[in-house]
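Hey team,

Filing this mostly as a record. A colleague (T.K.) asked me to run one chain through the structure pipeline before their review meeting, and I want the input and output archived in the tracker in case anyone asks later how it was produced. No errors, nothing strange. Just documentation.

Input sequence:
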Amino acid sequence: MNKKAMMEPKDWFSGLVGIIVFAVGLIPLLEQFNVVNWGISEFLSAGPFMSAVPFILAVLGFYLAIESIIELTNSNHIGWLSFFVGVVIMAIGILSALQSFGIGPGLFGLDLPVLVYNIIFIIEGLFLMIAMFAMEL
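Output structure:
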């Protein structure tokens, strides 16, 4: 049996995280454009969740960067794109988190609207779902 063709639990976990992150970004967008009305965007735009979003982005960006390194070790070229996307998302999360602590508020100026966060979550989720398959190529 070819071991290379089998998906490992880390691959499934990456895909599951990708689906959840994708949904967290997509559902509020669909509610904003009146496609669905599930009331989830009210929870996601609440104060405690929105104050945690920069930290969540930093962690998810780091996770995508680690997953893309695994893609690169398998000689997969999409790993480079995933790595740069993960680093950019991690940088956005770190800079926003630092701004929430009052470190360099005028320097960074990253007061991003909720729409931008939703789009970042969608992009992150897509790349994590791609990583699920790309780690085994």
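Quick notes for T.K.: The chain has six helices and no strands. The radius of gyration is 16 Å.
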